[in-house]
Design the sequence.
């Protein structure tokens, strides 16, 4: 499927893309089940409300989403308009995406004849160096709602969701082993991150720094043996923050 993520499409082109999406023209996954039961106007409006990047991602992961539904025995997945509205493709796990990518690379077809897709441009894997650069940028900005920060250093999910929604979102993505699309400037900071193994002096120094700053502990998932942090230890955070100064916006 072609990538339309570069520039805004005309209304006529958007309508063509939506129709191809629904009918399966140009896709190997076939027609979206029972899409004709939805209002075409509603479907087009929901697609048009997406950013250019999300429109491309919705198309790129369409067949992988349908393949997952079929593998789970779901005969009628959610309506197309709701798929756009809820950005349902983001529910695909890192494992499912990797499986789809591997299938495409070997020219295979998975999920009963449904094709796989390629990773979106700007994709960063969960807890990789770019992902961690994003997390530390958000941490350095401070909580969006300081009034909900807990007393002490015990961050419960309710505190995180209320006080620091952006950090909560990144923690959720990490716990599900899902990645995120990040701007090029954060990918450019990959060289500024280093992997710190758990149990080392560097690891303990970062634990202490997080507690000193009142930051929630970093997200963990099975198999993690360390984490990426700015190179140079906690003393390097000021220099790392300087690298972020030109642009501050990270996540929508």
Sequence:
């Amino acid at each position: 499927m072609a990538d339309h993520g570069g520039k805004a499409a005309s209304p006529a082109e958007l309508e063509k893309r939506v129709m191809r999406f629904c009918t399966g023209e140009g896709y190997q996954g076939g027609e979206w089940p029972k899409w004709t039961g939805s209002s075409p106007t509603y479907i087009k409006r929901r697609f048009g409300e997406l950013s250019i990047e999300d429109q491309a991602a919705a198309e790129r992961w369409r067949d992988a989403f349908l393949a997952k539904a079929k593998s789970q025995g779901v005969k009628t997945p959610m309506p197309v308009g709701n798929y756009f509205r809820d950005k349902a493709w983001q529910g695909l796990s890192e494992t499912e995406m990797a499986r789809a990518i591997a299938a495409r690379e070997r020219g295979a077809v998975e999920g009963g004849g449904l094709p796989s897709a390629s990773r979106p441009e700007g994709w960063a894997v969960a807890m990789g160096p770019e992902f961690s650069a994003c997390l530390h940028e958000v941490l350095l900005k401070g909580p969006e709602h300081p009034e909900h920060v807990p007393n002490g250093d015990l961050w419960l999910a309710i505190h995180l969701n209320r006080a620091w929604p952006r950090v909560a979102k990144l923690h959720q993505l990490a716990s599900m082993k899902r990645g995120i699309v990040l701007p090029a400037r954060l990918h450019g900071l990959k060289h500024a991150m280093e992997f710190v193994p758990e149990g080392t002096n560097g690891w303990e120094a970062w634990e202490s720094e997080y507690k000193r700053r009142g930051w929630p502990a970093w997200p963990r998932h099975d198999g993690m043996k360390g984490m990426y942090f700015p190179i140079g230890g906690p003393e390097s955070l000021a220099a790392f923050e300087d690298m972020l100064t030109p642009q501050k916006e990270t996540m929508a």
Q: What stands out?
A: The chain has a mean pLDDT of 82. The beta strands are 123-124, 180-181, 193-197, 226-230.
